[in-house]
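3.2 Worked example (two chains)
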Amino acid sequence: MPVYKNNKAKSKKYYVKHKNITKRGFETYQEAKMWESKLILENSQVNCNKYFYDVATLYFDDLKPNVTYATYGKAIQTYNAYIKPNLANKRLSSITALDCKKFKDFIDALPLHTSSKNYIIGVYKRIFTFAVKYLSLSNNPCINLDNFKRTSEEIIRKHSKELNVWSVDEFNKFIECVKIPKYKTLFYVLFYTGIRLGEAQALQWKDYYNGLIDVYKSYTVKTDKGIYEIKTTKTLSSIRKVSLPSKLIDVLDDYKASISSTPGFSNDWYIFGNINPLPRTNIERVKSKAIKESGVKRIKIHDFRHSHASNLIASGVNIVAVSKRLGHSDINMTLKTYTHLMKKSEDELLMSLDKIFSKSSQDDF
């Protein structure tokens, strides 16, 4: 509560603390509260008179140091393309709920995927939320804006879409064409552990021990200058110890033995890149070259993760174990991503039921 009573002073008068303003000497709580309400109203009137562009600028200044470069870049690009042209020169106080609805209708008419439309609305709403929280905006005009619902065509397309993954044979053809040891080892780790690329880039030799890797941090690009940052993983579930198959242990041990005599080597070195982690651009270039030479179908870096999970599920590994290995916060996330692979399990279930029922006589029913 911003209204306080000074019990230490002889007069025991009330005082108000609101942000960086302190006002003392009130005889009663009601007087202090009235002054506080007036101050908030005055601040609200001043802030609500700001142009939307000014509020958005403050929001993005606050956002930038707290998210990755990619996240910030996507948000500011979305604002400049879709929100700024419509609202930049409007005063915050003049924007009504109807204006917000009209903006949503404008976005709805654009030839964009539903997820893209919802992202635009999300950025739009977060700017107003910022104004409520920090600029004393008393009424949020877009509070009732709901997300767009996916079209039936999008739902069907999503459920029918197959993941772009490699079989073990396809991976073996690919890896034969990767000649540089550190990249070869990286692709082995991605395919046989399912960890994310950023998690692999952040791995240090001290994170590899006793036949497992300790995943608790991730690499992210901080600026457009190529400066990187190593941060803790986004969620607690992403912090995990991933066990390695014996073949992968041999690959890592052989690679470590080959570089351990390098001057300055230590367990603080990054497994993939030595003093600094390998940048994604270099990894993508090596991957593309090996795909072209091997003749296997083209996949994205993240598809190594999908390939790992898909091969495990197709081999009959418990979906809960797969979910934990991937670091998913919710098993439903795993099920939604790999639900098409469950058909095999369903077929096996029906075969088991047929066997059970064939052993029962009809009199049992």
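3.2.1 Second chain
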Amino acid sequence: MDGDGRPIAILLSHREIYQAEGAGAVTSCVRDMAACSHYRERIVVLGDPVRAPFAETRFLPVAKAPWFYGRRTARYAQGAANAIKDLNPALVEVHNRPSYIARLKKAAPHIPLVLYLHNDPQTMRGFKTPVERMQVLQQVAAVVCVSGYIRGRLLDGVSTSGLENKAHVVLNGVDTAAITPCRSQPRRKEILFVGRLIPEKGSLLFAQAAALACKQMPDWRFVMIGAWGFTNNEPPKEYEKQVMAEMRKLGSQGEMTGYLPRHKALERLSGAAMSVIPSLWEEPCSLAVIEAMASGCAVVAARRGGSPELIGDAGVLVDQDDPAQFAARMVEVALNAPVLEDWQQRARVRALQALDIRHASAELDAVRRRYVG
């Protein structure tokens, strides 16, 4: 199908923030992929209004439909459907919201729809059962999954009726030319946790492991970068208080920075020796893993979700949600200089070869090319 130069519409979910301040992992993925795409000049990102949208692509704020369409989410979806009908794009990519598909299909039945899954489809409204997933698969031209793990969850229980051919895996990526190890000075003896301070990300597990490891690593520091959300203005949640209490046990060996903008977090990663990703949930395609590897950190991560696909043989995977296990791995890697340097080098090479944004964007463009020419 030839798109005749018509735009490619990328629809963000309600409450995704398409600007530097407050941007989450999905927004970062969309922005980075679009910036490197062969179709960059044709891409239009649709989302909630923001003050300073990313400049890499055209941005179209979605005006919510009137109140009688129901709740804000429904009003947003209908507003997006109206905007897409007016835009008449060659293709629409819907990020993480299968519940939008039927509404968009009704508004613009002639436009191919691609569903882009960043999270477990079996947790999404209207997509949890095999029957629901089959119904959506029948309405879309393709589904892009951020890992083989997510593709497996999508197709779990779906009868073999050719629908599996619509499901494609495109791993996330980062700009490995921009995210690089610091070369001007030796890497600091720091072990970083970068992520939201929520139970799923395992921040408390990291703090507990650090408290165990610090006794054997007196000249190392353990740094936690993040907050519950994407701001430091909210009072700490009860879980955050637990993490803070555990980090205080580290004394001068511990540091909590609070939320940092992405570029500040990357600066810390570029000079740190190690990054730990102790996720307690099945990470679909962890940006924290990719950024740490591109930064040349040795990576210690939970063997969950899509993380093994990203890390390959270039990092240490931990099988148990046990602080003692994570502490042991941190100590083993950190206190053996040749081993530490080897893991750092392997992480960087893996990022260059398999996790660069240009490679990821080219794979996504290959999916688009089937529908837009």
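3.3 Remarks
The chain has a mean pLDDT of 95.
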